[in-house]
Amino acid sequence: MLDIKPRDVQVASIAAADTTVLRSRTWDRLKFEVEYSLQRGTTANSYLIQADKTALIDPPGESFTEIFLHQSQQFIELQQLDYIILGHVNPNRMVTLKALLELAPQVTFVCSKPGAIALQSALREYQHLLKIWIPRAEDTLDLGNSHQLQFISVPTPRWPDGLCTYDPATRILFTDKLFGCHVCGDEVFDDNWKALDEDRRFYYDCLHAAQSRQVEVALDKLAAFSAKMYAPGHGSIVRYSLSRLTHDYRTWSQQQKEQDLTVTLIYASAYGNTATLAQAIAKGITKAGVGVETINCEFTDPAEIEAAVQKCDGFIIGSPTLGGHMPTQVQTALGTVLSTAAKTKLAGVFGSYGWSGEAVDEIESKLQDAGYRLGFDTIRVKFKPDDLTLQQCKEAGTDFAQSLKKSKKFRTPSQPVSNSQIDRTAQAVGQVVGSLCVLAAKRGEVSSAMLASWVTQASFNPPGLTIAVAKDRAAESLTHTGDKFVLNILKEGMNVRRHFLKPFAPGEDRFAGLDTQDAENGCPIINDALAYLECTVKSRMDCGDHWLVYAVVDNGKVIQSKGMTAVHHRKSGCQY
Prior knowledge:
CATH topology of the largest domain: Metallo-beta-lactamase, Chain A
CATH architecture of the largest domain: 4-Layer Sandwich
Strand content: 25-35%
Radius of gyration: 25 Å
């Protein structure tokens, strides 16, 4: 069992002596949300500016409340704290905010208007203490010593109350959910920023790919400030790669806009659970090469919903159940969809509930009665989703995207060459053959597998191999740097391949009915295989519609001494 370090708070000065970061750290996975699924830990970054007046920016959620309060009081008397600035307001942060309010009743909260509404609702018992300031576009907050804080509204569907803060005295832009990543370590700054590329892209894909339009608007707003550092809510402070990461965000957002097919994902979320499901479904759609526009219907005008539904190729609706019904905003959005969306458009339904799930059932029945075809079995989740449920949601999103591609007869753009040349080239590429294998991976409670024939040895020392993994495969999410897997090399003449050629439902156990055992790395060995290799992913290369995964072989064994390796022969290089 791994020896995991205890949670702590790392404190460091980031600009002279008056701006400090308090990094609440966990080396373990913090939550079940998709964004944390690489399991590399994370930091919840808070920032303290101490001038004539003192401001605390973005205190952490309840996972760190106790240790954060203990550590912060080593640096400041909370009775002297003047402002708490909130990049966003969510239920998870309320435990810390209540504790701070009790220890510092004089404090003034600074947040956006939607944030103020959420704050007033959550802190009703503290109304006699609650002081909130909502800055307007040109407002500044003077802390003294040239710390004239400026505020930038950056609303998104996931965080409609988003607020960034800029300090011209230090040229630090406090970006909250933008420009972060979920990696825990001792590095306060991005000294080794190239090593963060994969984690930063994964963070963007999980949180922002489905709201890329709003992210582009935010980037345009932030460009007006001459920042020399980004201080995000998670991960290392961006000092050495600011221009590169800004460019990456623009590139990734542009890529989402250029997708040939798009899905409109409409939802409302009472306690964050439905939003978590929406995030996982969106991740599954985008990994399959289809664009997503998420719409939080609690904060979106019906006319905007109507326009999005009209131009999309498919739509998905998610809702909580409140008092046995769907929220009013979802009812309105559903009415807009039913009166606007063509009946040929693919549909989907999901939702979470506490004691009953009538809202999800009602949406499903109304869509089916209207003649819409559902792209996946309706997803119903009681209370908080777990890791297996989120994997099911991702796979459902991918299936939905693949169904769209199939129904629209989607074709990847190719170079303008003659059909005969295409045929000749495809036939030639098809002569490249490889060993037929099953890649079996497991991370925590989630496991998956896929047939792989694009496999080759890549190095002698250390022994390594490469595998091409399609981006829309379910197993792809378990092949990131540091992940473990078993490569089961199949024997010619065995029927194992047929098992993996059949379609699997979202979340379905890929190993049901097979004789397996666990390898030392915890991943499944198929006992009918010819041999197996236990591997660790060292790097990945983005290769169009595939990832080229390089892995080091940690262990291996020939299971059957007699027999030949199964080889996959193809007639065309355009398909498997």
